[in-house]
């Protein structure tokens, strides 16, 4: 059965729709930021399609606008995107058997909230036929709700006033939606540790506080699992 015809494809898309408002808000913010940084419209659209990583885009654009050396831009994006190494290692038990070309494609579409939603749906790290359709349904929805608002922000940047506070609205939407996924004391503990670590390390360059926060959350999760308190998602 083709992935898009599988019932899990529809389920993956529907569950991502619950998070779509926050994704769309951040996509719009990223689009506006790229347009106002001095990038041409075609270049900004190309960056949105190729990079497809909101945090890396928002961190790199000011550096590009300031004329920073290319190695600084690359290093910044690399540090911010190190979290995807963690995501990929966690997904290996599910998709490690797939051909390299397919795994590379999955890597391009990987996103933070897709990872969270997928792990909530499939907590046991064992491959199953329904996992790939679910993945495609979720990442397809995520990709559309990122790229369309991002392109809108690029095209309409001059018509969107800063007083709208889109960045703050997007952050609050994602925080609220992420909080609904924390279904137990252990997951709240991991999230709390990550938040504290991110704030404590905020002064680090290249937004390394993001990497520190992820490492802290993973460490807390491992510790809780060894204590017999494995972090659980909603419904578990």
TrEMBL record:
Entries under InterPro entries matching the protein: Brnchd-chn_aa_trnsp_permease (IPR011606)
Lineage: Bacteria, Pseudomonadati, Pseudomonadota, Betaproteobacteria, Burkholderiales
Single biological process term from Gene Ontology: L-valine transmembrane transport
Topology versus the membrane: Multi-pass membrane protein
Bilayer-spanning residue ranges: 12-33, 63-85, 105-122, 134-156, 162-180, 210-229
Transmembrane keyword on record: yes
Keywords recorded for this protein, A-Z: Cell membrane, Membrane, Transmembrane, Transmembrane helix, Transport
Name listed for the protein in its UniProt record: AzlC family ABC transporter permease
PANTHER family: INNER MEMBRANE PROTEIN YGAZ
Recorded GO CC terms: plasma membrane
Domain of life: Bacteria
Subcellular location field: Cell membrane
Family label: Belongs to the AzlC family.
